[in-house]
Structures are given as structure tokens and as C-alpha cells.
């Protein structure tokens, strides 16, 4: 006789952690710090929303990336 086990996934969190908003627009200079901020948000559970944007302010490239919490209606 073989035993079977059933595993269940934890229920998805319906709201972002730490009181963060469901929709966020991350902006900043195009550097490693900005990339880490996006990566950290993805690790928390956020998803990319749309394409990144970039502009030049005369000195540096400024980038933006929208992110949303799963299940957010936008």
C-alpha cells in the first residue's frame, strides 16, 4: 500500500505587504540601484506593468517602470 500526500499552496496575499500601494511607478537614474528596486519589488510579488520608459534630463538617463500587485484591476 502506498501513501499519498496532498500539498496545498499558501493562499495568495490579496494586498501588497508593508502597506504599499497596489500600483507603483518606480523612477530614478538608470543605475544598479534602480535595477535592485525593481528586482526587490518583483521578489515581493509585484508584476511588471507595461514597458519601461526612459528620458534624458541633460545629465543622466532617468527610467521608469510601472508595477502592479497581482489581481489589481488597472
Q: What would you note in describing this structure?
A:
The chain is an alpha+beta fold. The chain has a domain at 19-68. It is 18% helix and 34% strand. The protein contains 1 helix and 3 strands, in the order βαββ. The chain has one helix at 32-44, and strands spanning 23-29, 47-56, 61-68. The protein has a 3-stranded antiparallel beta sheet with strand order 1-3-2, covered by helices on one side. It is elongated and about 40 Å long. The model has no long low-confidence stretch (mean pLDDT 89).
Q: What's the pLDDT, averaged over the residues?
A: 89
Portion in strands:
25-35%
| Quaternary class | single chain
Largest sheet: 3 strands, antiparallel
Q: How does the helix and strand content classify structurally?
A: alpha+beta
Low-pLDDT parts are none
Counting DSSP H or I runs of 4 or more residues, the number of helices is 1
Give the SSE string.
EHEE
Terminal-residue CA separation? 51 Å
* Helical content (DSSP H or I, runs of 4+): 10-25%
Within the largest sheet, what's the order of strands?
1-3-2
Cα gyration radius (Å) = 18 Å
The strand count comes to: 3
Shape: elongated
What tags apply to this protein structure?
single chain, alpha+beta, 18% helix, 34% strand, elongated
Compact summary:
The protein has 74 residues and is α+β, with helices and mostly antiparallel strands. It is 18% helix and 34% strand.
List the helices and strands and how they pair.
Blueprint lengths: L22 E7 L2 H13 L2 E10 L4 E8 L6
Antiparallel strand pairs: 1-3, 2-3
Amino acid at each position: 500500500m502506498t501513501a499519498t500526500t496532498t500539498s496545498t499552496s499558501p493562499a495568495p496575499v490579496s494586498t501588497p505587504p508593508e502597506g504599499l500601494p497596489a500600483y507603483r511607478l518606480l523612477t530614478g537614474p538608470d543605475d544598479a540601484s534602480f535595477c535592485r528596486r525593481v528586482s526587490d519589488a518583483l521578489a515581493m510579488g509585484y508584476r511588471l506593468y507595461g514597458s519601461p520608459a526612459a528620458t534624458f534630463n541633460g545629465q543622466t538617463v532617468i527610467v521608469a517602470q510601472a508595477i502592479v500587485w497581482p489581481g489589481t484591476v488597472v
